[in-house]
Amino acid sequence: MGRIDEEFRAKRAAGRKLLVPYITGGYPGWQDAIRACAANGADAVEIGIPFSDPVMDGPVIQAASQAALEAGVTPTSVLDEVPNLDVDIPLAVMTYYNLVHHPGPERFAANLARAGISGAILPDLPLEESGPWCEAADANGIETIMLAAPTAPDERLPLVAARARGFLYSVGLLGVTGERASLADTATALAARLKAITDVPVLVGVGVSNAEQAHQATRVADGVIQGASMVRRLMESGPDAVGDYVAEVRAAIDAD
Amino acid sequence: MNPPPATLSAPPDQTGRFGEFGGRFVPETLVPACQELEAAFNDAWNDPGFRQELHDVHVQYSGRPSILTECHNLGEQLGVRLILKREDLNHTGSHKINNVIGQALLAKRMGKKRIVADTGAGQHGVASATAAALMGLECKVYMGAVDVERQALNVFRMKLLGAEVESVESGSRTLKDAVNEAMRHWVANVSDTYFCLGSVVGPHPYPYMVRQFQSIIGDEAHEQIVEMTGAMPDVVVACVGGGSNAMGLFAGFVDEPSTRLVGVEPAGGAAVGRGTPGVVHGSRSYLMQDEVGQVEEALSISAGLDYPGVGPEHAHLAAIGRAEYPNVTDAEVIDAFRLLSETEGIIPALESAHAIAWLSREAHTMQSQTVLLNLSGRGDKDVAQMMDILADEFGVES
């Protein structure tokens, strides 16, 4: 059992809701932002490794990725910094499959393990194509966090859940990452479908945009992932603002 | 490894792969949509009623079959027997209409209300807007901001045809970014929107489906050239960006071992010639990428060809040595654009001028051979751009 899996199940058993912020690796201040997340109640952090063609991301995260790429950020330069973060929560990376395919799944998984990364989210690698990566990830102790989408028919969800390690990423709505005025009905609906079929922790991400929405989502799900609302604060106000926001969301999801 | 198909024109395997290329690398949200599309396409393609309807629209609306034109002047100058397949004579001015009519009919059959498309030079956008108008579908077209500027006339055309044109400001602001935005739009609107891809790229079933819709080029040409010359051509040649006009032409000749298949890439966007295997926009193929796997910007004088990837079936044909993919420079393309115009009275699209450029450079190696060249589109859309380039030489105001 991997570190995310172990810690998330233990926390869930203790009645805690899980909070996973997303921070774009390589964007100025990203390391301090991750430290601020850890200090203010995040249970893990998802580090984005910027890719030139991020089809699952909306304008905010895409802009952060593009800025990081223009500053010369590479997968190696992000991973090299991870040991210096010195935070006591598990870290996962989120990136696109070409950055795995290019060095090869084996080498990429080994690089993650060496940097101290626990998990990986690859949004453009669906179940049917995930074989070579999952094998390499398992062999290197990297937990592959699978995505489940609201469009999936009932018979597909157990197959996705069976392959998920760490937690299951329940995609909150039809659409790309970004902030929305309200939590989509699909977010809680899919989380409920997943909770009914799996014991793997279920976290809702994509379109969870503020503390209130996070609270709403965690009434059904085991936790939330928040990306665009974190990255926007990092870009507009810097790492401290990210920490304040994490504390605010933490308080909201702990309220029940 | 999967066993090779019985013929090179066979469908891909059940994972959508041609050899080791292809597949379906898309966000989980789109997997059911791709599966639904695959089933719908197979059902339609095997339905004689659908095929008849497609045929009727092509005959009565697109202007098919397109003719073959023997180029006596240029052929003599180059020392080859040069025959053009005239896709430039199709309604909307290029081969793009073949695919779009097929996909729009399929979208209607699937009960979709709206099609979303991406476009580089605007040919696919114009074709999509045209088919949508014909069939009563809404149409939204994503186009890189750079291309919106380069191809103002086509933007106006699309709007005139009732389409909404969305200028894409992200990334390199060209075709690859338009594809990204169109895919994002599809992710958000997958329940009622049909994604009309313009080339033999993307997740399975698109590369296969678009090839089938474009194979009408090769099927017609195969029959026509036998009638005209009594034999198979020695060489068939077409330009390659994503590669749909080339794939359509190749489909008619890929199982004729005596015919050489040549796909000509732009030097600044030579995905096969200078790329390495990678995964972008839903499939594994040759891709122009940097040393860590970031996708590079392709650069070509022709907006329709500056795409950093290539269709996976082309990657397969290159890998097994069945087709060759040389490239030509923008300067050679400009010369070729003028050459065909001056010798034959045919102004080619800049895309098609790539094929002519390669032929004029290499013709000395194929003297007296029969060369079938796909003239994928007409040059009307490029005239303003070329006028800027050639203004001084021609003594005109640009």
UniProtKB/TrEMBL annotation, chain A:
GO terms for molecular function: tryptophan synthase activity. InterPro entries: Aldolase_TIM (IPR013785), RibuloseP-bd_barrel (IPR011060), Trp_synthase_alpha_AS (IPR018204), Trp_synthase_suA (IPR002028). The active site is at residues 46, 57. GO terms for cellular component: cytosol. Its EC number is 4.2.1.20. Pfam families: Trp_syntA. It catalyses: (1S,2R)-1-C-(indol-3-yl)glycerol 3-phosphate + L-serine = D-glyceraldehyde 3-phosphate + L-tryptophan + H2O. Keywords: Amino-acid biosynthesis, Aromatic amino acid biosynthesis, Lyase, Tryptophan biosynthesis. Gene3D superfamilies: Aldolase class I. Pathway: Amino-acid biosynthesis; L-tryptophan biosynthesis; L-tryptophan from chorismate: step 5/5. It is an enzyme of class 4 (lyase). PROSITE patterns: TRP_SYNTHASE_ALPHA (PS00167). Belongs to the TrpA family. The alpha subunit is responsible for the aldol cleavage of indoleglycerol phosphate to indole and glyceraldehyde 3-phosphate. HAMAP family: Trp_synth_alpha. Tetramer of two alpha and two beta chains. This is Tryptophan synthase alpha chain. It comes from Ilumatobacter coccineus (strain NBRC 103263 / KCTC 29153 / YM16-304).
UniProtKB/TrEMBL annotation, chain B:
SUPFAM superfamilies: Tryptophan synthase beta subunit-like PLP-dependent enzymes (SSF53686). Its cofactor is pyridoxal 5'-phosphate. GO terms for molecular function: tryptophan synthase activity. Pathway: Amino-acid biosynthesis; L-tryptophan biosynthesis; L-tryptophan from chorismate: step 5/5. It catalyses: (1S,2R)-1-C-(indol-3-yl)glycerol 3-phosphate + L-serine = D-glyceraldehyde 3-phosphate + L-tryptophan + H2O. Its EC number is 4.2.1.20. GO terms for cellular component: cytoplasm. Gene3D superfamilies: 3.40.50.1100. The modification N6-(pyridoxal phosphate)lysine is found at residue 96. It is an enzyme of class 4 (lyase). The keyword Amino-acid biosynthesis applies. Coiled coil: none annotated. The keyword Transmembrane helix does not apply. InterPro entries: Trp_synth_b_CS, Trp_synth_beta, Trp_synth_beta/beta-like, TrpB-like_PALP, TrpB-like_PALP_sf. Keywords: Amino-acid biosynthesis, Aromatic amino acid biosynthesis, Lyase, Pyridoxal phosphate, Tryptophan biosynthesis. Residues 63-377 form the Tryptophan synthase beta chain-like PALP domain. Belongs to the TrpB family. The beta subunit is responsible for the synthesis of L-tryptophan from indole and L-serine. Tetramer of two alpha and two beta chains. This is Tryptophan synthase beta chain. It comes from Ilumatobacter coccineus (strain NBRC 103263 / KCTC 29153 / YM16-304). The lineage of its organism: Bacteria, Bacillati, Actinomycetota, Acidimicrobiia, Acidimicrobiales.
